[in-house]
Each structure stands twice: as C-alpha cells, then as structure tokens.
Design a protein that fits this description.
- This protein has 302 residues and is mainly alpha-helical.
- The chain folds into three domains: 76 residues, no CATH class; 96 residues, Cytochrome Bc1 Complex, Chain D, domain 2 (Orthogonal Bundle), CATH 1.10.760; 91 residues, Cytochrome c-like domain (Cytochrome Bc1 Complex, Chain D, domain 2), CATH 1.10.760.10.
- Helix content is 55%, strand content 7%.
- The strands form two sheets. Strands 1-2 form a two-stranded antiparallel sheet. It has a two-stranded antiparallel sheet with strand order 3-4.
- The chain starts with a helix and ends with a helix.
- 20% of the residues are buried.
Length: 302
C-alpha cells in the first residue's frame, strides 16, 4: 500500500473511532433536569402518539460500548489494521498460513512419512497403506482410469497387467513422477485409404478377430514396411517406445473395424500428466503401491 493510502486509512479509522467515542459519551448526559415533571422530560419527538424520553443509556450498555472501544484499540495495536502499520504482535496472514502448513506437514509426515523409504512391493503388502493409496487414487486418478482402475476409453486399464511402459514398481514410479506422452502418428497420408483398410484387417487378424484374409495379406506387407518399427515384427509392441501390443486383444480406443481404421488413418495422441507437482513423494509411493497391487490381482487369480 502506498504512503498516501496508508495515511488515508489511518486517519479515516482513527477519526471514526474518535467520533464514535464522542457520540457515546455525549449521549451519557440528558438535556432535561431530573427534577422536572416526567411529562416534560421528553425530547419533543412524537411519533404516532408515542413520545421519546431523554434518558441516558443504561450503565451496563454504556460500559459494553466502552469495552468494545478498548478492545478495538488493543486489537489495532497488536494486529495490522492501520494502513502499513503491521502491529506490535507481528501477525500476518501469510505467517499464519505457513504455520498451519507446517503443522499439516508434520501431521502428514507422521502418517505418510514412513512410506518414503519403504520398497513399493512391501507397501503393497500393507493393508492400511493400500487403503490410503486407494483414497489418493480416487481423488487424483479415478477421473481418467475409473474408480476401480479398470480404465476408460483412451485411458488404460490398470488391473490387467498389460503395460505400455512397464509394470515394475520402478516403471510405475517413473510414470507417476514424469508422466507419459503417447503418440500414434496418422498413417492415412502415407498409405492411403486402401492401405488403411488393409492394415486394419491385418490387425484384426493378429487378434483372432473376424477379418478379410486377402486384405489382411496386403495389410501384412504394409505393416512390415510402416508399422513394424514401433510395434515390432510380430506386432507385440515395444515398451521402450510406449507402442502397444497389437496381438493381445486389449484396446485403448476400441476393436471395431472402423475404430481401428480411424486409429491408423488419423493417429492417436494421449498424455498422462506428471503427478510430481500435485502429490508429495510419500503419496506418490502409496499410489504406486496401490496400482502395483491392482495389476498383481490378475497374477494371483491365475
């Protein structure tokens, strides 16, 4: 606040307090003599037949106002309220916020801090830790991956042990810390519409789905020329590149003929945002352990 406005606030505040004090003490006196006839002890104001007596404030009421003014003076001396004057107490809203944050961090460190150095596999065996991880997942991840981690259109299922970038604890942590960017470049301009249709038939054939054998044979040639670099000669993908396995009948964008053609023709682009700027390390490890446990459920069932 500039000096001018600081002085303006100080003068305005103190002037108002002085005027309120004057009004309070001025009304402590009466304009008529106590010995006068009660009928004459009025202010002369009459409204609807009701006369206003000129009586002072009750003592308890007057003292209550005085106490309020005293409190105001003490408050303005201790806390900031007079322009740039910070008060003798040194209180600031920022300082109070930082103290509350420090208290919260201390409380959270007591609850979550034990998991910072604990291996993910060990956290995944701790039932209480998994409950906390599930709650953090529900608040931050479920909007994309579903409340049960089963995924949504364009967002991978985290319960099926099929991974684009690897499902080891280290890889899951890497994904949470750094995020992931997936890009399937559009191939329509490269192979043409006929090539798109043939390649789609070959992808259907890789998954054992109904397809046109002749078109699939043509598509295999296209796949070996255009798609193999990312998805591998056998179509089983490359985790190092984030290229999905095209033979396991697991789909991010659907397995219908038209959906596959759209993917090949127009490409796909997706992003898993980094959680490092949203969650502390201990919470990231709890989420990682929870996701790791979800993927292991399939192994346990098998």
């Amino acid at each position: 606040m500039s000096t001018f406005w600081s002085v303006w606030v100080i003068v305005l505040t103190l002037t108002n307090l002085a005027l309120i004090t004057w009004v309070l003490f001025a009304n402590r006196k009466v304009a008529v003599d106590d010995q006068q006839d009660p009928e004459n002890k009025t202010t002369g104001h009459v409204y609807d037949g009701i006369e206003e007596y000129d009586n002072p404030l009750p003592k308890w009421w007057f003292m209550l106002f005085v106490a309020t003014l005293v409190f105001t003076g003490i408050y303005l001396a201790i806390y900031p309220g007079l322009g740039n004057f910070k008060g003798f107490g040194g209180w600031t809203s920022v300082g109070q916020l930082e103290r509350h944050q420090a208290e919260a961090r201390a409380e959270f460190d007591e609850t979550y801090g034990q998991y910072v150095e604990m291996p993910i596999e060990q956290i995944a065996e701790n039932r209480e830790a998994l409950k906390m991880g599930a709650r953090i997942f529900a608040n931050n991840c479920a909007v994309c991956h579903g409340a049960d981690g089963g995924g949504n259109y364009g967002f991978p299922n985290l319960t099926d042990n099929d991974w684009l970038h690897g499902g080891t604890p280290d890889k899951i942590l890497e994904t949470l810390h750094e995020g992931r960017k997936g890009l399937m470049p559009p191939q329509g301009p490269v192979i043409g519409e006929e090539g798109v249709k043939n390649a789609a038939e070959y992808v259907l054939a890789l998954n054992g789905l109904e397809h046109d054998p002749a078109m699939a044979a043509e598509g295999k040639e296209i796949f070996g020329t255009v798609c193999m670099a990312c998805h591998g000669a056998d179509g089983k993908g490359k985790q190092a590149m984030g290229a999905p396995n095209l033979t396991d009948n697991i789909w991010l964008y659907g397995s219908s003929r038209e959906q596959i053609r759209h993917t090949i023709r127009s490409g796909r682009k997706n992003e898993m945002p980094s959680q490092a700027d949203k969650l502390r390390e201990d919470k990231i490890r709890l989420v990682a352990a929870y996701v790791y446990s979800l993927s292991r459920q399939e192994e346990v069932e098998q």
